[in-house]
Amino acid sequence: xxxxxxxxxxxxxxxxxxxxxxxxxxxxxxMFGMFIWALGQNKTVAERIKAQKExxxxxxxxxxxxxxxxxxxxxxxxxxxxxxxxxxxxxVLATVDHALEARVQARIEHVENMLEMQQSSNETKADxxxxxxxxxxxxxxxxxxxxxxxxxxxxxMGTHMSSEKEELVAKLAKKEKELQKxxxxxxxxxNSQRGHKIHYLGExxxxxxxxxGVGIWTTGSIYRGxxxxxxxxxxxxxEWVDGEKYVGNYVNGVREGQGTYYWPNGDRYEGEWKNxxxxxxxxxxxxxxxxxxxxxxxxxxxTDK
Length: 305
Fold this sequence. Notes:
alpha+beta, about 55% helix, about 30% strand, rod-shaped, Histone H3 K4-specific methyltransferase SET7/9 N-terminal domain
């Protein structure tokens, strides 16, 4: 395949190093963006935890207020002491929220009526215990409902937080792998199998090109794809300065497996490769995608011609 010498080598090198600078700048921006993303995730989780704690505190406070009301009811029912019960209700009224205020106020009015009737007559015309027993049943039912709601809420909160934690851990693990991959990106220089110098930007392991990266030959050719020990290995795209291009598989630096070769005039070959040449079954198309030859190849030549 053709490889041309460039007349303006200095201009090419300037463009080449400018390209490296841009690529490294993009890598730095990506790493900074990942860092900001991780901070945002931690802030979101903290806000959710704070909201859940506030809701739990609200439910616990409601449960405590109902418990105070229950104790005041017990004072009247078990002891029959209206004055002590009235004092307890008034203390509860100072702490309850709007939802319980009307119920506590009703108890206070009822006990006040009973006390007024007792003062005007030694005989009471109604036993307030029947009324308070019904109210006690309502309070117990509400307490049970609140406890059930709180238990359900805590259970759901635990499940939700556990799921969110697992999801966040998985995302962070993925981002950590990506950051580790980015941290392996380096710039190195080495010689190709044919002795051409290659400037490489990509993943480096043990001082050699291993993983994904871009190689720029001093001849002007460029390869983008996978590498193994400074050799093209795996899927990749190689472009010559004259416009010819190969897209396909490499094994230890040579084209091998499936690949497509493009010529500047629009012709292309799609098929098998071995030992850096067309070997095996393949199809040659012209610039209009019409089939020029379809069959077996050996060392870049059709076997049926």
